Amino acid sequence: MQINQVKKAVIPAAGFGTRLFPATKVVKKELFPIIDRDGRAKPVIQVIVEEAISAGIAEIAIVTQPEDKEVFADYFQTLPHPSLFAKLSPENQEYSRYLQDLGSKITILTQDRQEGYGHAVFCAQEWVKDEPFLLMLGDHIYSSDSNKSCTKQILNVYEQVNCSVLGLTIMPGETISKAGCATGKWQELSSILTLTQIYEKPTLEYARQNLRVEGMKDDDFLCVFGLYILTPKIFDLLGENISNNFREKGEFQLTSCLEKLRQLEGMAGYIIQGKCFDIGMPDCYRQTMIDFP
């Protein structure tokens, strides 16, 4: 069986960042600084891009608002003004060229109307074309608990199962009403599942009745980690919702299309050995600054 190699990643970064207002009036949340493993202060988006490239991804699309396209392009694809560049240490001058090298692998796409996460993903359809792709969140960064990065783990699982893969993490019942959840049957105990349902923000009662997973503790459930490998069929499903103006809570969402994709093609779930840090809310961003990497 021939497996289509995953070469492209899509990172939606077009949200307004309302939960981090007023800082997001002047700085996109994806550009908030993080102190990375190498001791450098980097914008969140760079940490995500490096995670993808280090796992073997060759091309990356960042989906942003039209007015922010120049900001991302300038960061990754333009050297500082010569007068500023001359003031940098030789090390940082070389690092500026490294950023340009990253930028050569990045395409900036735009979401002209902010109509939901599913709509942002759909904006990458023409760029992705007809191949599987890695989907990463623009306000999540990852720290692996193993010698393989979180992204490398899910890419390896895709090569094993040859179908869409949903990265998962274990969460307690009291927090699942804020997350996408999934259930399934084990292929490899405590690691890979064949998914049987994906459900957005369930109540604890619904989860207890429908989302239990064999062998897991009571009131522990599998929730979306923030890494996905998806086949291009997802664009057909998103496009159908957009054409029919089928909205959920006023927007075009991804989770219901993931469930349709699962029904049509099958989907695996993988419990990633690592942690996901959400910087999209003040408390989470503050804790990320303390705990990451």
Characterize the structure shown.
This protein is an alpha/beta fold. The protein is built from 11 helices and 13 strands. The chain has helices at residues 44-54, 69-77, 82-85, 90-103, 117-122, 125-128, 150-161, 204-210, 233-243, 255-265, 282-291, and strands spanning 8-12, 33-35, 41-43, 59-64, 106-110, 133-136, 140-144, 164-172, 180-188, 192-200, 220-230, 267-271, 274-278. It is 34% helix and 27% strand.
Global geometry: globular
Stretches where pLDDT falls below 50 for ≥5 residues?
none
Q: Tell me the β content.
A: 25-35%
Largest beta sheet: what is the strand line-up?
8-11-9-10-12
- Within CATH, the superfamily of the largest domain carries the name Spore Coat Polysaccharide Biosynthesis Protein SpsA, Chain A
Q: What would you say the CATH architecture of the largest domain is?
A: Alpha-Beta Complex
Give helix % range. 25-40%
Oligomerization: single chain
What number is the mean pLDDT?
Answer: 93
Radius of gyration, in angstroms, nearest whole number: 19 Å
Task: Kindly identify the CATH topology of the largest domain.
Answer: Spore Coat Polysaccharide Biosynthesis Protein SpsA, Chain A
User: Structural class from helices and strands?
Assistant: alpha/beta
How many helical elements?
11
**Biggest beta-sheet profile:** 5 strands, mixed, barrel
The domain count comes to 2
- Please report the total strand number as a whole number: 13
Order of helices and strands: EEEHEHHHEHHEEHEEEHEHHEEH
- CATH class division of the largest domain: Alpha Beta
